[in-house]
Amino acid sequence: MIDSHAHLDVSQYDQDCPQVIERAFKNGIKYIINIGSDLATSQGSVTLASQHEKIYATVGIHPMAEQETGCDAIKEMTKIAELAREPKIVAIGECGLELNQKSNIKNLSSAQAGDQNDKLKIKKQAELFLAQIKLAQKLKLPLVIHCRNAHNETLEILSGVKNLKAVIHCYSGSWDQARKYLDLGCYISFTGIITYARDYNRVIKNMPMERILLETDCPYLAPIPHRGERNEPAYVKHVYETVAQVRSESLEKITERVDQNAIEFFEI
Length: 268
Ligand SMILES: [Zn+2]
What we know:
alpha/beta, eight-stranded parallel β-sheet, globular, binds zinc ion
């Protein structure tokens, strides 16, 4: 099994990161993709990948990074672009869009319909997202996309991208939206949320097998039976098990196919 989206360089693992990694590989995890979400964690990802043979890294800036860390994200893109050339960098991201649930904006072109704050926020996020799309294209790397409450806006941006190779991580949309992502050639990735929320069963059942990736998004979103605890890569097996159950297929078959998808997607 492969954990295609982990954040092992964050403070939640300060005490026991080596043990967490060891536990993952002892429990049959083949590879871990460690994801950067700002400059510090992108650097952390590069370091982690350089220390462990079976850990690969991505570098990128999350749409909420500026709001959460006070960084100047566009400025930091220069350094992200440098880091992106390091060995073992397999994608750009996580990048994308995150809006409030009650945002007034329906899509980018009607952004004038939203209030001032929404307008400014989406404009800045879209600029940062586009800079990362451009970097990915330049380096011929795939994109790891974070999208919350902004699927229509994300679809609008992605539909203008040539030779798009992207995964929509921690999928939160409908089957209808998933179909649109699939038409654009995107992969879709699921977290431990699917072990307790039934909302995604339709998407999981209808998905073409060759476009599914699975992940923990650890330390967040621990699956059942670890819900509420700190998450870790070894727990990705519960996400694989849920997909096997929902699709009424054997765990072996799901594992073989999904691992193949991740290896092809990240070219590892
Ligand atoms: Zn993440």
